[in-house]
Amino acid sequence: MAKGEVKLLGSWPSPYVMRARIALNLKSVEYEFLEEKLGVKSELLLKSNPVHKKIPVLLHHSKPICESLVIVQYIDEVWSSGPAILPSDPYDRAVARFWASYVDEKFFPALRALPMAQGKEAMEAAMHPVKEGLALLEDAYANHSKGGPFFGGGQISYLDVAFGCFLGVIRVSEKVTGVALINEHTTPGLAGWAEEFCAHPAVEDVMPDTDKLTEFINRIIKMKSQSPN
């Protein structure tokens, strides 16, 4: 592969960027990571994603591909240098896409609100949809992992990437609230899965350090609280 053929615009704390990085690692694709600065959108980003103006953006032969799950699917289709990410069975593929949509549309918005909850009542109210979501994902893991360590069975697949990228934020939420959201008592399947996922060679180097990510999220919360809007 020619140098500079694949570039990824992103930022290390972003779980969405992490999806693309994990997918590229699974396929053993060499790429250049172009770090975007907090609060600053580069000209290349604005040119490459003029609709949403957001990361991640994958540049392949200078052609931009936007939106994290679209990027993961593109990587899976273009490179055969690693295991398939999307399940080969049409039903399994549909199920994985369904749960990936659930994670993005329902679970993560609830999780994102948790570190910002102030006071006991607000914390309890914010905690409920997160625990409810984890219970649903625990059932999904039990029903679709086929006895393997991952949602995809014996290897990391689409839903593992889609959901696993949020483990860093989950760890931050656990640290902030003092509540073990994923544990061997309430979510034993997810507890084992999370350990296996984070230890995978495609994941371990891109999963952010909890203390570093906590500091970053606190900085974002402080910036939002000081914003006039």
TrEMBL record:
GO terms for molecular function: glutathione transferase activity. Is involved in the conjugation of reduced glutathione to a wide number of exogenous and endogenous hydrophobic electrophiles. Residues 89-216 form the GST C-terminal domain. Belongs to the GST superfamily. Tau family. It comes from the Eukaryota. InterPro entries: Glutathione-S-Trfase_C-like (IPR010987), Glutathione-S-Trfase_C_sf (IPR036282), Glutathione_S-Trfase (IPR040079), Glutathione_S-Trfase_N (IPR004045), GST_C_Tau (IPR045074), Omega/Tau-like (IPR045073), Thioredoxin-like_sf (IPR036249). Its EC number is 2.5.1.18. This is Glutathione S-transferase. Its main location: cytoplasm. It comes from Nepenthes gracilis (Slender pitcher plant). It is found in: Cytoplasm, Cytosol. Gene3D superfamilies: 1.20.1050.10, Glutaredoxin. It catalyses: RX + glutathione = an S-substituted glutathione + a halide anion + H(+). Residues 4-83 form the GST N-terminal domain. One of its GO terms (cellular component) is cytosol. Keywords: Cytoplasm, Detoxification, Transferase. GO terms for biological process: glutathione metabolic process; toxin catabolic process. Signal peptide: none annotated.
